[in-house]
Amino acid sequence: MQRMLAGELYRADDVEIQTAQAAAREWMVRYNAALSMTPAQRHALLAERLGAVGAGSEIRPPFHCDYGFNLRLGRGVFLNFNCVVLDVVEVEIGDGTQIGPAVQIYTADHPRDPDVRREGWEFGRPVRIGRNVWIGGGAIILPGVSIGDDALVGAGSVVTRDVPAGATVAGNPARAVRTAG
């Protein structure tokens, strides 16, 4: 588990990792059944599992993650229905960021060497999303990506590289459509 959290090679069949994933699955069953609860009640459930949940932040169920405790939300963050966060290492989402439905954020990565991959080794690279970012529905954010403050990511985009503050990116792979200034 410590190797995973440090972004080093680890094996997902580790007992401690399996136990943490089972706890996350149990929590997701409760959270994903909470659609009829008030935002305040759902916020309390998020605070049970996530690494940090700022005031006024909301995730609409269904929501899926690997662990939850590696996800940190600033104030007023919004994730719409059906988002997936593979949080084997830290995912940080800044204040006021809005994330559309079915967005996927991945920190989980795999070795490029097929022999190492065949042995079951994995690693993670953190994702950082700044303040006041808007990510359109169905976008995919790949491991190790940082998205700067005030950036826009078009719906359906696959973000493979860092996005500068204030930039607008779209497409697969996502490319600059407009930059700040």
From TrEMBL:
Pfam family, one: Mac
Keyword Transferase on entry: yes
Keywords in alphabetical order: Acyltransferase, Repeat, Transferase
Keyword Acyltransferase: yes
Signal sequence, renumbered to the chain: none
Spans through the membrane: none
InterPro entries: Hexapep, Hexapep_transf_CS, Hexapeptide_acetyltransf, Mac_dom, Trimer_LpxA-like_sf
Highest taxon, organism lineage: Bacteria
Domain Maltose/galactoside acetyltransferase: 1-55
Family: Belongs to the transferase hexapeptide repeat family.
Protein name in the entry: Sugar O-acetyltransferase
Organism whose genome encodes this protein: Lysobacter panacisoli
